[in-house]
Structure to design on (71 residues):
């Protein structure tokens, strides 16, 4: 499954954008983009305008994630 990730700033600063695909989970997205599932709550916090918890994601949503801060 192809991942759609769009870095929007230089690594080490700023945020990227990720579009939720069918079958995605926040834990998988956190692992892939941020290096660990332990940062999943950080994704929720960054995107609290769209999601309340890990089960509150839908295909097509665009989530922000921090660039250059892999665990």
């Amino acid at each position: 499954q192809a991942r759609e990730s769009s870095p929007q700033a230089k690594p080490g600063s700023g945020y990227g954008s990720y579009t939720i695909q069918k079958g995605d989970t926040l834990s998988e997205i956190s692992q892939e983009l941020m290096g660990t599932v332990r940062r999943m709550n950080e994704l929720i916090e960054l995107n609290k305008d769209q999601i309340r918890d890990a089960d509150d994601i839908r295909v097509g949503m665009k989530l922000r994630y921090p660039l250059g801060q892999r665990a």
Remarks:
- The chain has a mean pLDDT of 84.
- The chain has two helices and three strands.
- The CA atoms of residues 45 and 52 lie 8 Å apart.
- Helices lie at 26-34, 40-46.
